[in-house]
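Hey L., structure's done. Input below.
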Amino acid sequence: MIDLKQHIRSVPDFPKPGILFYDIGTLLANGPAWHEALTRLADALRPLKPDALVGIESRGFLVAAPLAAMLGIGFVMVRKKGKLPGKTIRHSYALEYGNDVIEIQDGMLKKGERVVLCDDLLATGGTAAAATALVHEIGAEVVHAAFIIELTFLEGRQRLKMPVTSLMAYES
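Output:
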């Protein structure tokens, strides 16, 4: 079994001083390790029988799209305001220093569908909670959330109201 943490690069002071960034770019660049990560997530999610995976912009797309293909289900994007064509459904949410808006294309999810939310990293859980609220506004149900990395010291899991799978946890 591949030790996936060996394929995560730590970048100090990115995107600003004092932040230690956990970069999945090195995981993506290693074919066997990336395949192992996707296989582990697929094995965890397959028993849930979701109707679709919802990926959060932008690295969440890298997780959700190939994973959805492996599971034989659809992939739906959640993006920042103004990035999706056609009619969209919006959700505003508070950030530490202001507000932001995320959108999903109208008609991509149907009422009652069971979805899994995917992103590369779970930190404070703010964006994942906002994406969950957006999916619920449509009438779909987020039954699970899946991440490559979880920063457990930021307690993002506590903000989410569904079970969470993460492949790697960092304590600090």
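The mean pLDDT is 96. Residues 7 and 30 are 8 Å apart (CA to CA).

-- N.
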